[in-house]
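Tutorial, part two.
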Amino acid sequence: KLSSLVEAMRQAAAGLLKGMDWQVVAPSNDESSTGSLEFYRQVFLFFREATHNIARHAAATQVRIEADWQPNCFHLCIQDNGCGFDVDAISAGNGLANLRHRAEVLRGTLQIISAPGKGTRISLEADVS
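Running the prediction step on this input gives:
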């Protein structure tokens, strides 16, 4: 169930985002929507990579995580108020490459919006399969 995926994200956020003001916003009344085990795995690993990057690099104090889904479409948005970065200038490390790879595996759309001093917004939209 996608509601179980969101609960797993909440638990991971509690461990990864210690010392930050964070919140997860998601539908609370939908217990029927489901995705494949591989979908669940890839989205969760995407989420862990994104929140790990925030914890390690962003110097953020606030993080907002939004998950939403329609019958065939899943949307995840992770936004922080951290230091931000120049998306085009980052080449070291595997964090952004891992996010891009997971989005490709999900046949989804990844959008990363960031700028130095402006925080970061990472958005994933993928078919639920």
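The two ends are 12 Å apart (CA to CA). In part three we will examine how such features are distributed along the chain.
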